[in-house]
Design a protein that fits this description.
Blueprint: H1 4-21, H2 26-48, H3 50-67, H4 73-76, H5 86-93, H6 95-103, H7 112-122, H8 126-133, H9 139-153, H10 158-167, H11 175-192, H12 206-230, H13 242-257, H14 263-277, H15 282-299
Helix pairs in contact: 1-2, 1-12, 2-11, 2-12, 3-7, 9-11, 12-13, 13-14, 13-15, 14-15
Length: 313
């Protein structure tokens, strides 16, 4: 589920927190990193689970309309297409999905006002009206509707962000990634016609990559920080932005420890991360410092890459 970039971000944040805490408990840092990675999958399930709650709101609205003494034409003859949505039904009937959501408390009952607000927004949208009035009646169309809902209703939603912040501080930075994963998961469900359950890591060796990247960065932090200091031109180390320092230490560590990752990829990844998690000028500083130190280590034989093109700048 997690991309290598997100793994790097999680490892960087854990390293930064570890250094700031002045702790020496590497095992605790490793546990924190894995928990942070697993939280992304929890967010994925939490977001996806709103589907059946939206259907419940629609069912309740239909029931209220039918009980009225003087219902409107639409209330007296409701359109049941949304409440019979096959994708939402597949989720609701999947025992593994239900077990995970219940066990980990990934349910929306406490946030019914938000669910109703989302539903009231959905029914005003053209994509919903087109769905309800189309002559098509298929599982594919049902899946496409929920793709539209997640694309349209949840991105940059301040009310949602407030809920997620209350539930887990780790979720705020992950919501965009999790939403993309949800949309990709709906598409996979559409193709396979069954619910798939993602693993936290996309590849078998990604967990090992995460733990080794963090652990080696912790063990090498003091050494590489001093190396950075030796390369600072007219710049005192106490003026060094600590987020930059953590990114550079981790980038140098990755270049040294992982022989199959190209140097260019490593530098580009940490420069990109610096754009979002450090100062406006950090990308230039991180790029220059990483390039200087890694080239020095290449010359000294500490960075050894396997395969053609891995040293290309």
């Amino acid at each position: 589920m997690l991309s290598r970039r997100l793994i790097r971000i999680k490892a960087f944040k854990t390293l930064f927190a570890f250094v700031g805490s002045e702790s020496d408990n590497v095992n605790a840092a490793q546990k924190t990193l894995i928990e942070s990675c697993d939280k992304v999958k929890d967010l994925y399930y939490f977001l996806l689970n709103i589907s059946s709650f939206l259907v419940t709101v629609a069912e309740e609205k239909i029931a209220v309309g039918l009980r009225k003494f003087h219902p409107t034409e639409a209330e007296a003859h409701p359109n049941y297409k949304f409440v019979r949505n096959r994708f939402a039904a597949l989720l609701a009937d999947d025992p593994e999905f239900g077990r995970i959501c219940q066990k980990r408390g990934l349910v929306w009952g406490e946030y019914e006002p938000f669910v109703r607000h989302v539903y009231n927004s959905i029914i005003t949208k053209d994509y919903y009206q087109d769905y309800m009035n189309s002559g098509e009646d298929s599982f594919e169309e049902d899946c496409r509707l929920f793709s539209c809902i997640f694309q349209d209703e949840f991105e940059d939603n301040e009310e949602l962000e407030s809920i997620l912040e209350d539930l887990s501080l780790l979720w705020i930075d992950d919501v965009a990634y999790a939403l993309n994963a949800v949309i990709a998961g709906i598409e996979e469900t559409r193709r396979k016609k069954r619910i798939t359950h993602p693993n936290t890591f996309l590849k078998e060796d990604d967990k090992e990559f995460a733990l080794r990247l963090l652990t080696e960065s912790i063990l090498r932090y003091d050494e590489y920080f001093k190396l950075m200091e030796s390369h600072l031109d007219n710049w005192k180390s106490d003026r060094l932005v600590l987020t930059d320092a953590a990114l550079i230490v981790m980038g140098v560590t990755e270049a040294v420890v992982f022989p199959t990752i190209p140097v260019k990829v490593t530098i580009n990844e940490y420069v990109e991360i610096s754009k979002y998690y450090s100062t406006p000028n950090s990308r230039i500083f991180v790029n220059g410092m990483l390039d200087r130190i890694i080239q020095e280590k290449i010359a000294g034989g500490e960075v050894v890459k396997q395969g053609r093109g891995l040293f290309e700048q």
